[in-house]
Amino acid sequence: MVFDLDYLPPDILHRELQIADLAACLRPVLRDVAPGHVLCIGPPSTGKTTVVRYVLEKLEEHGVATAYLRCPVLRTSYNVFAKIFEMLSGKVPPQKGVPLFKLLDEIAELLEDEVLVVALDDINFLPDSVLNEVLMALVKSAEFKVGVIAIATSKGFVARLDAYLGSIVHFHEIVFPLYTRKEVEEILRWRVEHGFYPGVMTKEAFEAIVDLVVRNGDIRYGLYLLRRAGLIAERRGSRRIEIEDVERAREGEEVVALAKSIAALNSDEREALKIIYSLDEENITTGDIYAIMRAEVGLYYERFYEIIGKLERLRFIDLVFGRRGRGRTRYVVRRYEPKIILEAIRNYG
Question: Which domains occur in the chain, in start order?
């Protein structure tokens, strides 16, 4: 179904540059040569996973061996390589307790000297020891040729690599920016046209969903709202999706959608977000926030402004210039009701 999160459209809208860049990086595999390693980086729900899966599917059509892995559910090195073995062989992997080098030997036998392209989605979720062991086994493997695609919301995981691995692993970065409003409209319009009969969704309902997606920067939330609003309209016996169906669909779900973006923040960034949404004042300046965080967690000025910039990029806040006294300062404008953000932070914790 076109509203499912795992659905892969035949054409990926507004990510043509990223697709071309990734395809160019991986082109050597068509000559049976190991490609360079790639980092697909950007805020949540900006098409990273979709683009990677799309390109991997095209490679598979040319007979290239690929493995796409979701790292949050793979907490050990054995789990990572057992999943690769399973995807390549279609068989249940060897029992736990088998040494990792033997599992790597079995993967090498399956590949028969072919190149393997491995995509590690949400690589930042791997524990430090697993992250280092997995990347070391892949990039320094003497048994098989491999190209790694790392998918992450930030480059923080690179700082967690040990000194030797960090010196030899170099990623070509492909940046995925947030979608513009026009791009959101076109992406969701395609889903509506292919998921509903003509005229089912009213203009007002569609624009309400676009507004919600633009505000929280999560296309996945828009797909959920389209599917849910359609079900609500069907249950009330209507052949049209009205704005009240969208309102019912979003009840309680905005917190869930925001929790996914909050998962992209580290502890200092979540603390800054909590402070911003806990203050009673309306006219909050960046200086006000910095003073509190300096006192509570001892942040340096440069790091603080990195955090504020990230919160703006993820659309938790807006930064606007204004006057205070005789000078100018930057004010922090909250994009959500404080109770929604604070509940999302609690849910994440």
Answer: 16-175 (3.40.50.300), 181-251 (1.10.8.60), 265-337 (1.10.10.10)
